[in-house]
Amino acid sequence: MIKIIGVRFRQAGKVYFFNPLKYEFKVGDHVIVETARGVEYGRVVIPTKQMPDDQVPQPLKPVIRMATKEDDEKEQQNKVKEKEAFQICLEKIRKHGLNMKLIDSEYTFDNNKLLFYFTADGRIDFRELVKDLASVFKTRIELRQIGVRDETKLMGGIGICGRALCCHSYLSDFVPVSIKMAKEQNLSLNPTKISGVCGRLMCCLKNEQDTYEELNFRLPNVGDYVTTPEGLKGEVASVSVLRQLVKVIVAEEDEKEIREYKVEDLKFKPRKKKERKLTAEEQKALEKLENQERKEERESKI
Q1: One digit per residue, pLDDT tens: the chain, 302 residues?
Q2: CA dist 137 to 15, 107, 225, Å?
Q3: ω before 59 within 30° of 0 (cis)?
Q4: Which of 161, 205, 231, 273 has the fewest Cβ atoms nearer than 10 Å?
Q5: In angstroms, rounded to a whole number, what is the distance separating the alpha carbons of residues 186 and 194?
Q6: Cα(299)–Cα(120) distance, integer angstroms
Q7: How far apart are CA 35 and CA 52, in angstroms?
Q8: Closest by alpha carbon to 263, among 215, 211, 297?
Q9: Which among 158, 128, 123 is positioned nearest to 141, based on CA atoms?
Q10: What's the CA gap between 182 and 206, in Å, rounded?
Q11: Residue 199's closest CA among 140, 258, 128, 119?
């Protein structure tokens, strides 16, 4: 077992582990640590605790110190400087005529590096821009191209649910989301209804996927034949996944009617789940959405 703390450097950023040494940290404390980017100011989100060695990435860097009042003030000054740097970078981008959208700027705590995040269609030759910025700020400059998901995570916003975006408020990493999840949850396959602010499939489709898979597994397919508690055979007309109810078309005395049953009251042979068929219009729209996803994935590897 090894003693660790978990630290974040952004609101919903990735959690990094550090060795707390002799300190006892609680959630909300601020610390000064050394990262691959340099000395950083972070917030403790996992208090001092013991973890198995194989669950902690090695080598584990030690905490430099608990943040002092002077450190807090310096961090606030850095935030002001970042806003000024953002405006200067915007002017330089316009001056060089570059087709790129500046998203955010960020100083490392020790001011050893200044990072600018941007989006663009394809590659951008920003070598002259970097030289220009370095002459202004007299520090190391890094321009980092990000995708639309990362842009939305940095900017934040309100989703169609009326709540703050998951990626900006608590989601540390993006989870894989697929069209299959929307089918499994019987959602409208209109891309405008299952896409988030970023224009990609909504991350929250993953939240209920496991539950829907389990509930769907217990139900028959529409069109299957089942035996009712009265001993009648009938065809499944529709199913309510969350309520676990099945509407069955049964024939009694030469008359057909639809009756609703709890799934546990029915007898049927479990079958492999049928995938919902797409209309030509849905297929075309979803192919476009998937192509965007693949393009962004390729760009993120550049």
Answers
A1: 889 999 999 888 889 999 998 888 999 999 999 988 889 999 999 999 888 888 888 788 999 999 999 999 999 999 999 999 999 999 999 999 999 999 999 999 989 999 999 999 888 889 999 999 999 999 999 999 998 889 999 988 998 889 999 899 888 888 888 888 888 888 887 888 888 888 888 988 898 899 998 898 889 988 889 999 988 899 999 999 999 999 999 987 778 889 999 999 999 887 666 555 666 766 676 677 666 666 655 544 43
A2: 30, 11, 73
A3: yes
A4: 231
A5: 11
A6: 10
A7: 22
A8: 215
A9: 128
A10: 9
A11: 119
**Cβ atoms of residues 145 and 124 within 8 Å:** yes
CA distance linking residue 200 with residue 292, whole number of Å: 8
Is the pTM value of this prediction over 0.85? Answer: no
For residue 135 the two structure tokens come to: 């002459």
